[in-house]
Design goal:
Oligomer: single chain
CATH architecture: 2-Layer Sandwich
Largest sheet: 5 strands, antiparallel
Mean pLDDT: 86
Number of strands: 5
Radius of gyration: 19 Å
Number of helices: 3
Distance between the termini: 75 Å
Shape: globular
């Protein structure tokens, strides 16, 4: 049985990390037909996930994410591809929002004050 262990450090704090973990769980439920359960804890949250050939958990703290998964025999042959996809998705969720580029419109335009 192949195993995955992926750790990502962050400085988001627990509230933002929890939000990202919820997004991740929703994403893997939709894209990979995973069954996820979410348990909030005082110092860490745990997202357990399972589907045919995969079983694992994502531990969320105020400083890091740690994903551990066991891949069944058939999926074990694709461990590298699966790991790369998980890393890509998790890194995308953890990436800071992109700053507006040059020439892009400002987020909020001020409207002129009505004339009296």
């Amino acid at each position: 049985m192949a195993e995955l262990n992926i750790v990502r450090e962050h400085a988001l704090g627990m509230v933002k990390a929890r939000k990202i973990a919820f997004q991740w769980a929703e994403q893997v439920e939709q894209e990979f037909s995973m069954q996820c359960s979410y348990a909030q804890g005082k110092h860490a949250d745990e997202v357990d996930f399972v589907r045919s050939g995969v079983k694992g958990s994502l531990t969320v703290t105020k400083t890091h994410f740690e994903l551990r998964a066991q891949l069944g025999f058939l999926l074990g042959a694709f461990k590298g591809t699966i790991e790369a996809e998980i890393v890509k998705n998790l890194d995308a969720l953890l990436a800071p929002p992109a700053a507006p580029g040059p020439g892009s419109a400002p987020a909020h335009k001020k409207r002129p004050a009505p004339k009296a």
